[in-house]
Amino acid sequence: METPQFNSDEEFFAWTFQKISEAITNLTKRIEQVEEGMQKIPPPGPDMVKYKPPGNPTYLNLKELLDLIFKIMHEHEVRFDDKDDIRDKIHGELQTRLNLEVREQLSDKMEAIEERLNRIEDKIIE
Asked: Is the full-model pTM beyond 0.70?
């Protein structure tokens, strides 16, 4: 915008003050918009971050999100600890069954050996 031609100093000052007044009004409106926008920004802390995990109906702040992550991790740790107990129980059960089976087979073999020894003794005695 060009500066218009003025017939007197009063016209020039009136125009200048008018432009300064408009500039101040515009700055005031912009500052109000900036302040309004700044009020929408959350204060520093957990509410600065919002995230909606898949399957979750609401957004979580940073604290709630970390709590959820650590809860899930703990549940997995507990589940895997239980699996170790189950593995130990299964291993113990297998060892017991194996020992029983080996004892049965040894018993059968011992009976067969005893029978053979008895036959041999019978032949020797005759």
From this structure: no
